[in-house]
Amino acid sequence: MSSGRKTMTVFVTLLSGLILVIAGIALHWPRWAWPALGALLVAVAVLVHRVIGRDSEEFPRELMLEPDLPIPTAPRQEERVSDVVLPSCVADYDFVFSATVRWALLDPPDGAPLINPAGLAVDAVLKRAREITAVQPPTRSALAQHALDGALGVMRPDRTGRVLAMAQDVSLSLPGTDLERLAKLSAVRKDEDVWEHERNHERNKRAYLGNDVLKDTGSAVVWWLARNEEKVEAAVDRIGVLARLTAAANNEEVAPEFQHLLPPPPGALHGTAEQTSTAPGPAPEEPFSPEAADAEADVPVADLLGWFGFGPDDPDLLLFAERLADIADKHGRPQAAEAIKRHVDQPPAPGHAPDEPPGEPPAADHRPL
């Protein structure tokens, strides 16, 4: 006897006895009726016990003769898809997709044709994956794979409404050769960006210098003074240089008001610059004139040889003059070469004794030019 049956039997018996006792007191039953009341309560308890025991049997005994058989496991409805090419947002750079496709059948409508659930499920998963990869760059394959994991991890019906499909164990990659090409293109693109920025920087600097700083001499002086605020006297000293720089930047001549600040043109020889700038003479471009050379060329040649430390009695004078004349002739200065030769060929002044032993011919005779 279970505890539930015992509890229910005692409860019903006590409740019945309580009702009978209240009724006997209220009705003033005789004394002989009380023993009969006790026997009645015992009969009620036995009856309740039997009734409750019969209702508690859930299954009939004849149905429990054989043991329960195990329920067979439902077959797994899945298929592995490997190395499927899916496009990226860049032409000719495709992803390689692999995944395990799982599906579940839906209730078919009346008269629906037979289907291949694996084919419908794979097609539905690939279409969903293609929509995602088509907008992803090929260099972000890992990020695209995580996006596919989330999008394909939900069961969704296919276009026919016959199966629910999803994917797991998703793998998305890019071929190694494409990765190398993309790395090279990225490096070249970065170099081009740097070069373009450097070129724009140089162009802006040229525009700033040409259109603002070196627009005229005044702008150049103000620019220099702004960068050297405490060097006013130095700015005044550089006006001539800035004027020449401004004229060169604009392909113009130096303005007349700044001509007096320009340095004098360099002379051909030190010590004769004043002569060449004041005394008229043949221009360098004019052909050689023996008459003019006889009058003026000897003095500069003597000064030049003296500047090198060669006196008229120096034994190496003729050799040095010969080499100097050759150099002048090779550089397209035949007038200067002829003047040097004539200078060393002149006879010594009267009363001058050359540094040669008696009876020996002069050195110039041994070294004709």
Summarize the structure.
This protein is α+β, with helices and mostly antiparallel strands and 369 residues long.
Explain the overall architecture.
This protein is an alpha+beta fold and 369 residues long. The protein has 4 domains: 56 residues, no CATH class; 96 residues, Tetrahydropterin Synthase, Chain A (2-Layer Sandwich), CATH 3.30.479; 60 residues, no CATH class; 79 residues, no CATH class. 53% of the residues lie in helices and 9% in strands. It has 14 helices and 4 strands. Strands 1-2-4-3 form a 4-stranded antiparallel beta sheet. A hairpin with a 5-residue loop joins strand 3 and strand 4. Helix 6 packs across helix 8. The longest helix has 38 residues. The radius of gyration is 61 Å and the shape is elongated.
DSSP strand content: 5-15%
Number of strands: 4
CATH architecture of the largest domain: 2-Layer Sandwich
Low-confidence stretches: 268-298, 348-369
| Helical fraction | 40-55%
Number of folding domains?
A: 4
**If helices are DSSP runs of H or I spanning 4 or more residues, what is the number of helices?**
14
CATH structural class of the largest domain: Alpha Beta
CATH-defined fold name of the largest domain: Tetrahydropterin Synthase, Chain A
